[in-house]
Amino acid sequence: MESSTQQQKAPQSLSLSGSGGDGGSTVAPAPVPGSPHLYRHDSDTGIFAQNLPRHVMVDDPSLSWFRKPHTLTMMIVTLLVIIVGAFTMDSNNTEVNVKVGLTAAAGAFLVFSVLYLHDGPFLRPHPAVWRFVTGCGIIYLLGLTFLFFQTPAFARHFLTYFDTALGVPLPERSYAENCEFYTPDHPHSRFANILDALHDEFALAHTIGWWAKMLLLRDVYLCVFLSCMFEIWELTLQHQLPNFAECWWDHIILDILVCNNIGIIAGWFTCRYLLKVKEYNWSGLWATKKGKIISSFVPTDFDEFQWEMLSNWRRFVSVLLFCLAISLIELNAFYLKFVLWVPPPHPLNIGRLLLWLFMGLPAAREYYQFVVDPNCYRFGPQAWLCVCIFSMETLVSIKLGRGMFPMPFPDEVFYPWVVFLAVATVGLIAYFSLRATPATTADASSAAVSKRKKQRGNHGNSNTNNNNNNNQSTKQPPSGLRARKMAK
Question: Which one of 39, 242, 260, 454 counts the least CB within 10 Å of its CB?
Answer without folding.
Answer: 454
